[in-house]
Amino acid sequence: MLLEVAEKVLPQAIKPGLVAYCPTMDLIALATRDEQVHVFRLNGQRVFGVANKATDCTIVQITWKPN
User: Fold this and answer.
1) pTM for the complete prediction?
2) Contacts of 29 (CB under 8 A, 6+ apart)
């Protein structure tokens, strides 16, 4: 059963398949439809974000390094 820990309203829509959870750090990484990557803590606090400046690049996968 997945319990709700926090709720966050984002200014951009996310890409549905591009969400990754890091169980060791309790972080969520996600990609938005305008090709940005954001990392949040489970309480909704933003940790990191980067915008894709290239117009011909697309985010196709998000994964955490297994260490």
Assistant:
1) 0.81
2) 19, 20, 22, 37, 38, 39, 62, 64
